[in-house]
Design brief:
Blueprint (H helix, E strand, L loop, with lengths): L4 E4 L7 H14 L3 E4 L7 H11 L4 E4 L2 E2 L5 H14 L4 E6 L3 H6 L8 H16 L27 E4 L3 H10 L2 E2 L9 H15 L7 E4 L2 E4 L3 H18 L3 H21 L15 H7 E4 L1 H11 L5 E5 L6 H11 L16 H4 L9
Parallel strand pairs: 1-2, 1-11, 2-3, 3-5, 4-5, 5-6, 6-7, 7-8, 8-11, 9-10
Helix pairs in contact: 1-2, 1-12, 3-5, 5-6, 6-7, 8-9, 11-12
Keywords: Oxidoreductase
Pfam family, one: Bac_luciferase
Protein name: LLM class flavin-dependent oxidoreductase
Amino acid sequence: MTARRGVGLTPMETRRDVIVRTAVLADELGYEVFAVPEGWGLDSAPVLTEIALRTTTIRVASGVLSVWGRTPATLAMTAATLQQISEGRYILGLGASTRALAEGFHDVPFEHPAAKLRDVVTKVRALLAGEPARLTRAAGAYPLRLGQPPAPELPIWIAALGERSLRVTAELGDAWIPAFVPRDSMAGLTEKLRQLRQAAAPDASPLTVAVGPLTVVAEDTASARDLAATCVAWYLTAMGDVYASSVSRQGYAAEVKEIIAANPRPSPRRGTVPPAAEPVLGQLAAYGTAEQVSDQLSEWERAADIVTVMLPPGLPWPVIEATLRAAAPRSVAVPAGATAGPPAAAAAAAPGSASA
């Protein structure tokens, strides 16, 4: 069978031309999903439109849109439009984001994020299914429907790290797309999600897991490490406390403290992961030569249905190209007694599939 691969970016990557060029190469190399995030820089919708028009098979994803930045109606319109433009290849990724973005950028109080996530996912699904808008604030208003053909099959993938958000993912999502989760924690978290989903929706399709490490390929292993370490350090020290708290909860509290202490003035261009915190870097990143990275990614194949290669921001094009080529989908051995088809969880994510 062929290992399934995706590509994900960070919100700090704002070179639109580079993003599109990366997506076109990923399409040519057989990657399954290309995810464009949205933070405080580029609006992901027009970028995904350009990518959809320049690719043929790769699925294009919002990875992710904040539930604080758009109304459910706007999210549904955007998703349904991108589904048309991409001819059925679009995936709507949603997440509760962070306090820093919700309050510092969107000017919205970051209150009850899991409840907000549940409310938005529920309302967007209703609109995409052709139902009237579920109004809760405008008393007496006439609820409108989405003014284009319904798209109930459009998948919604959810980014979640906290306990309550994980429950929303298990109950309402088609896939779980976390970021910066230690590889050795994935088995336990995936099993928890499976149990939650079975209890909440026993007839639903299995939840697809799309996750992977920050990935950098370079001829010089030390240079590749520095690029990966800078991004890991930035996320654990400067992106609020969501990622630092999550990684700490997974058994790496001491290492996170070491990284925070080593980066008193966090910079997205220069960060340090000290030797005492090396285990965290090994859990969150794959770096080195092409052969080294290929070996490291094989470890993630046991943790995810789709191994999502995350590219740090600002990489030179030769590094991006080398990384994508080294991490590209490849044939893997099928264990004795196993089928050569995709796992059940993976099949649930196929284009056109209905879901929970």
